[in-house]
């Protein structure tokens, strides 16, 4: 059986990073609380990480509290960490994986091939209102010298109207454009419309799994 994950052509084309977006994992009961669900999905997610050659990379995740704080990794780290109170992570370090879990919210990939630097952000309705993606891009400019015109932004599948009353994906795109990002990619896929492929917190009334978004810079520039 093919492993349930997808990759985005716009990110693959940069040639500087590895990435993946997991889909619904068949045969796993996810009608539990988030911690138990992530525990049940862990083995499948590890298998997918191995499949995209990121299995041995340290994994850094965010606690995800629907806020706008961004963790910054600008020095080499080797121990996997969850950053408390954060909804996004940015880095210019190679050979580490940034991870975000979503089940209707948008995982926003930010790749600056020139610096290079990357970011991964959890942005739902509240985070979008608080400008979490804007903050991540601003921090990449400030910390790494990234320029918005060089960035590629990719939105993951997320919930959209008519299954949700707010089109926060469109607002994320607007915010990125306002900062000068020109290369923004959004396939327009709705999680709640595709329950055979994705988890949806709203459509499944909170008893659901999580998709894992991953991105990491190649270990070497020649990789």
What do these coordinates show?
The chain is of the alpha/beta class. It has a single domain, classed as CNF1/YfiH-like putative cysteine hydrolases (4-Layer Sandwich). It is 23% helix and 26% strand. The strands form 2 sheets. Strands 1-2-12-7-3-5 form a 6-stranded mixed sheet, with helices on one face. It has a 6-stranded mixed sheet with strand order 4-6-9-8-10-11. β8 and β9 form a beta hairpin.
Topology:
Layout: E1 5-6, H1 9-12, E2 17-22, H2 34-51, E3 59-62, E4 70-73, E5 81-83, E6 88-91, E7 97-102, E8 106-112, E9 117-123, H3 125-129, H4 132-144, E10 152-155, H5 168-178, E11 183-186, E12 211-217
Parallel strand pairs: 3-5, 3-7, 4-6, 10-11
Antiparallel strand pairs: 1-2, 2-12, 6-9, 7-12, 8-9, 8-10
Biggest sheet architecture: 6 strands, mixed
CATH superfamily: CNF1/YfiH-like putative cysteine hydrolases
* Percentage of β-strand residues: 25-35%
CATH architectural name: 4-Layer Sandwich
- Count the beta strands: 12
Tell me the count of domains: 1
Number of helices: 5
Structural class, judged by helices and strands?
alpha/beta
CATH class: Alpha Beta
CATH topology: CNF1/YfiH-like putative cysteine hydrolases
Rg result: 16 Å
Order of helices and strands: EHEHEEEEEEEHHEHEE
What would you call the shape?
globular
Q: Helix share of residues?
A: 10-25%
How far do the termini sit from each other? 28 Å
Mean pLDDT: 95
Low-pLDDT stretches: none
């Amino acid at each position: 059986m093919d492993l349930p994950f997808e990759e985005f052509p716009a990110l693959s084309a940069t040639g500087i990073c590895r990435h993946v977006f997991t889909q619904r994992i068949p045969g796993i009961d996810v009608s539990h609380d988030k911690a138990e669900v992530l525990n049940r999905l862990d083995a499948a997610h590890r298998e997918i990480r191995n499949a995209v050659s990121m299995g041995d990379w340290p994994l850094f995740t965010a606690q995800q509290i629907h806020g706008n704080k961004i963790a910054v990794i600008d020095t080499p780290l080797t121990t996997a960490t969850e950053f408390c109170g954060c909804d996004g992570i940015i880095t210019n370090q190679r050979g580490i994986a940034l991870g975000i879990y979503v089940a209707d919210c948008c995982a926003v990939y930010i790749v600056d091939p020139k610096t290079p630097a990357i970011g991964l952000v959890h942005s739902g309705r509240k985070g979008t209102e608080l400008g979490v993606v804007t903050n991540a891009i601003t921090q990449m400019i400030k910390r790494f010298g990234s320029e918005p015109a060089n960035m590629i932004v990719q939105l993951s599948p997320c919930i959209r109207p008519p299954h949700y009353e707010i089109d926060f994906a469109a607002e994320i795109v607007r915010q990125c454009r306002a900062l000068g990002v020109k290369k923004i990619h959004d396939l327009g896929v709705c999680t709640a419309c595709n329950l055979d492929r994705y988890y949806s917190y709203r459509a499944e009334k909170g008893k659901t799994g999580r998709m894992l978004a991953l991105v990491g810079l190649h270990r070497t520039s020649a990789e």
